[in-house]
Amino acid sequence: MRVTGSGDPRVSVEETLPGKLPQRKITTGAAAGYSSYGNQIGLATGQVAEVYDEGFVAKRMEIGAVIGAAPRKNVVRMAPMEGDLVILVGGKTGRDGCGGATGSSKEHTEESLLSCGAEVQKGNPPTERKIQRLFRNPTVSTMIKKCNDFGAGGVSVAIGELTDGLEIDLDAIPKKYEGLDGTELAISESQERMAVVVSQGDAEAFCKFAQEENLEVTVVAKVTSSPRLKMSWRGKYIVDLSRTFLDTNGVKQKLRWLLSLPLNSKTILDPCLGQ
Predict the structure, then answer these.
(1) Coil, strand or helix: which one is 237?
(2) Are residues 31 and 165 part of one domain?
(3) Rounded distance between C-alpha atoms, residue 198 and residue 206, angstroms
(4) Does the pLDDT at position 268 exceed 60?
(5) What global pTM score does this model have?
(6) Which of 10, 87, 234, 250 is most deeply buried (CB count within 10 A of its CB)?
């Protein structure tokens, strides 16, 4: 499904907002990108809607969704256990997509061309197609205990939310080029990568199946019994967080408060409204 929003693409170049591309350029470029990627991975787009409105002149709207189906017998749901391995399958990691999820929701100016270039994610449809073929193999899919794609947050989220206790080796992550620091490796949203949890006994066989599809596979993390998320880079831990803290999303769940009322007050206290 593809739903997009654009200003009037018939407007002349002279009427284009300062610092913006013409609406026609954005509209035709987006359509070409969608059709090219979908065709290369063999995915039909059944619902397409282009909404033309002046509200989308300054910032274009892009929403997409894909529905997949698999035979029930090919899908297993198991909790990761201590000693299980996390394998990174697919594309290599680069600076593309560092801050991509947040970048798509913030205001951009002409200076963004120089300061926000790394936020743009770069697709790799041939690799995506290989992953599709790999996961359609029942022998492979039934090895997978849990799986995540690398969307917003990169390694931090894709691997970090798989289970409670994890030790992630950022140095093991395949890179597109040298020079990436620990933070970039942890948050890059480079596309066409999957994180799968398998038992130690299945790891070798899983990797072999992936290599037969000409996919790069690397063990990048292990499941531990300690409920902490740890990431190491160049031999040192640069992240070591309690899972209890992560589960709160940084928000305090309980507050202590004291309310004093005047004497002879007839105020009715409603715990739901706080009054």
Answers:
(1) strand
(2) no
(3) 8
(4) no
(5) 0.81
(6) 87
Judged by phi (left if over 0) then psi (alpha if -120 to 50, else beta), residue 153 lies in left
Q: What is the CATH number of the domain that holds 241?
A: 3.90.650.10
78 and 181 fall within a common domain: yes
- Produce one character per residue of 15-36: b if its CB has 16 or more CB atoms within 10 Å, e if not: ebeeebebbbebbeebeeebee
Indicate whether 258 belongs to any domain: no
Separation between Cα atoms, residue 252 and residue 81, nearest integer Å: 29
Number of neighbours of residue 152 by Cβ within 10 angstroms:
15
- Using DSSP's 3-state secondary structure scheme, residue 23 falls into helix
Q: Are residues 56 and 150 in the same domain?
A: no
Per-residue pLDDT, 166: 97
Packing angle, helices 125-135 and 23-41, rounded to 10 = 30
pLDDT at 204 over 50: yes
Number of H-type helices and E-type strands within the chain:
9, 10
Query: How would you list the strands of the sheet with 2-6, edge to edge?
Result: 48-52, 2-6, 61-64
Domain that includes residue 37, residue range:
2-64
How confident is residue 48, by pLDDT bands cut at 50, 70 and 90? confident
Strands 217-223 and 166-169: antiparallel
Q: Are residues 113 and 232 in the same domain?
A: yes
Q: What is the pLDDT of residue 270?
A: 55
* 267 falls within a domain: no
Do the Cβ atoms of 235 and 229 come closer than 8 Å?
no
With respect to residue 260, please indicate whether it lies within any of the assigned structural domains: no
Cβ–Cβ under 8 Å, residues 96 and 118: yes
Q: From CA 73, how far away is CA 263, in angstroms rounded?
A: 68
